[in-house]
Design brief:
It is a single chain. The protein is mainly alpha-helical. The protein contains 7 helices and 5 strands, in the order E-E-E-H-H-E-E-H-H-H-H-H. It has a 3-stranded mixed sheet with strand order 1-4-5, with no helix packed on it. It has a two-stranded antiparallel sheet with strand order 2-3. A hairpin with a 2-residue loop joins strand 4 (about 80-85) and strand 5 (about 90). It starts with a strand and ends with a helix. It has a domain at about 80-210: Fido-like domain (Fic-like fold, Orthogonal Bundle), CATH 1.10.3290.10. Helices cover about 55% and strands about 10% of the residues. The longest helix has 21 residues, at about 30-50.
């Protein structure tokens, strides 16, 4: 069985792209632009399909829109290789379609059972749901790369569907990324508290920015 890391080590790692084989260190500009394309796609989709359920087909389409122009060979398609990330092995690639289908069904069901917006536990339950979804998506690791970015874009989509502002979960700085990875590792053990704190802080900042 072929195994691969989704995060090559060092700036000398190279990736084959539409623009040729380039070092990962030079991919940042494309990655940022890709995420922007993905968020624009989400915003447009919500306007037209506000209450439509998130499906596996939509998730693949989002990934393709965001990164297919950089990696046309595999973006938007479930991985066909076995990968490791953050020191652990992802589920077997042949399980991905079923796992993503179940994730979408579970998300739809959980959204149905959120308390009403006037309930004092409303924001708490939303944060719990987002932490669960984000961790579960990254754990499944459906794509060859950019699973974390896709999970965070989908988090923004869920918020938009709930009439809440999108959030920016900071991972660019090494300290922020370290904290985020720690939160995901703790969630692996069933402890979502740190991830919930990160999401809660991001949502609070987003809400404050629109009330200023």
């Amino acid at each position: 069985m072929v195994k691969a890391s989704t995060k090559p080590k060092g700036a000398t790692s190279y990736k084959e792209t539409t623009f040729g084989i380039i070092p990962r260190s030079k991919l940042l500009h494309f990655e940022v632009e890709g995420t922007k394309k993905g968020l624009e796609f989400i915003a447009d989709w919500v306007q037209k399909n506000k209450q439509t359920k998130i499906t596996p087909e939509f998730i693949c389409k989002l990934h393709k829109v965001a990164y297919g122009w950089i990696f046309p060979n595999w973006a938007g398609k479930y991985r066909k290789i076995q990968v490791t990330f953050s020191g652990k092995e992802a589920p077997s690639y042949f399980q991905v379609p079923e796992l993503i289908h179940t994730l979408c069904e579970d998300l739809a069901e959980r959204l149905k059972h959120l308390p009403k917006s006037v309930d004092e536990n409303y924001s708490i339950e939303i944060i719990k749901l987002l932490a669960w979804f984000q961790h579960r998506f990254v754990f499944i690791h459906p794509f060859q790369d950019y699973n974390g970015r896709t999970a965070r874009m989908l988090t923004s989509l869920i918020l938009l569907q709930l009439n809440l502002p999108t959030v920016e979960i900071k991972v660019a700085k090494s300290t922020d990324r370290k904290q985020y990875l720690q939160a995901m590792q703790e969630a692996d053990q069933g402890n979502y508290s740190l991830l919930e704190v990160i999401i809660s802080q991001s949502l609070t900042e987003a809400l404050e920015s629109i009330t200023k």
